[in-house]
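[Automated response] Your request has been received and processed.

Submitted sequence:
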Amino acid sequence: MTQADLLKLYQGQFKLIKTLNYCSCQKLFLPLVLLNCLLASIWNLPTANLSFITEINEYLSLFSPAAKSLDAKLEIGVSSPGDDREKSREEVLLIENNQNYTENQLPLEIYFPSPQDQKITFFTGVIPRENLANQLWNKNIYGWNHKTNSTTNMTSFMNYTDFFKANNLSNSKNANLISNFTWDTASEPVVTMLEKNRIQEYSDYLGEDFQEQLLNPKNIQDILVNLHRQTGKKSAVIYINLYQDQLQIILLTETGQPIVKTIPEVNREKLRNTTIMFIGEITDFRNSNTTSYLPLAQKLYNWLIAPIATELEKANIDTLLFSIDSGFRLLPLAALHDGEKFLIEKYNFSLIPSFSLINPNYNSLENTQVLAMGASKFSEQLPLPAVSVELTTITQELWQGNSFLNEEFTRQNLIYQRQNYPYSIIHLATHAEFRSGDVSKSYIQLWNEKLQLHQIGELGWNNPQVELLVLSACRTAVGDKNSELGFAGLAIATGVKSALGSLWFVNDEATLGLMTEFYSHLSNVQIKAEALQAAQLAMLRGKVVIEKGILRGSVSDGEMSLPPELANIQNQKFSHPYYWAGFTMVGSPW
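Generated structure:
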């Protein structure tokens, strides 16, 4: 095995170590180190000295006088072997935070230069910066370096830059030591790290490699500025990340450094439990005439939005793009409440897997056509009696296009119609489910078969790319990572730019009301997320109602008779979040 091969092996194992660290499985760190040592011995390569594995705080205090208060655990991982002739090695320093902090955080990246002088990253993470008053942390840190002529006699150096230069680099025998890693007070590396992690997560789920699409914060900001010019809407990206001991929110706007907020009183378990209770309160139909959801809606707003509310207002933001950590992607963001207003009353937004994975190009939907297909009856699922009215209304009254119902709703016809004409909007009024398990378990129900999520990419919707896919009756398994990935990655999986779906199944008449409102506004606004916002506000404010079997909307001529199966509904309002908060724009909001 060559040195380059071993470096690749170590890189993969350090990714696993990082995952174990985030999952509170630090006890597995030592076995992995021992495994590395065993492999190194098999191939007769240098190994790390295990006596350094459990050093705690002894060397950290050298960084600054204030650093002694930082309760950190130093773990030394197996390094890459250096030149065999010199028997030189460089150790890896991993820092695991054991406390809660509220101040700015310090991004950390640890890497080795490869034999080709290319950086090989083993670990990226975030550590707290509280109490580290020495501003020399802004500069490069000369990391944990070992130069040795044996595997047992090592000399350790771990000092901040000026101290290290003054006391060590002046010695010619140490002049060839280089910086192994950089700690920077700017938050920019954190955004890049999150983008990498999100991309990897969806690459693993969908079985494709998306890493080449990685954008850095400057790329993202340039795109936001350009879209502001084209649409008149100012956008911001919000990353929500959960750790075992804290919540982290990162806000990226058109200009300036990313803003990092840490909420130590909120951890993964607390937010998860609150989210599940919140969804339960909203979707329990017995509560549809109450406001029992409000205390939880306000608590979640205070945790997730309030910490950055001032910055959003100062930047005059209109559109939010949420990239949310695993376990929380099914949160109905529209229903978060600040005590006076719902979040949807203040912003339009979309759920994104990562900014790097969306298509940020803006194209107007003016003069485009919609291909609308659906089914009103099924052999094994609940009927959707309003679908026929939905398809006819959309294609004949609200938009230009063609509709196909029941027996005509097949995979073959779906492919044929799109090949015949490059429809920019595809509207599917049918059952769709995002289930636990791999991507093949999630599906869209056609007339005669289930179209699995991973099969949609074969339909050619990316050439030319479909601007908008609408799934008007979908349902997602709450609390399951893979079902979340299926929903939040809907646009990626299907090859479309934007997708509109629902987090839970909403009754047929309410779906009809929201969809007619959405298409009514789509031609009058600049971006898709704004049309969804207008539709949700119309529902919330009681402008969409059923009166004596007639569905009335917010527009002057927005009135239609319900199908016979629903004609017995005399009076109904849709202001409760159950009816509108589950509908979510996924992917590009523009």
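Summary generated for your ticket: DSSP finds 15 helices and 24 strands in the chain. The longest strand covers residues 72-81.
If you did not submit this request, please reply to this message.
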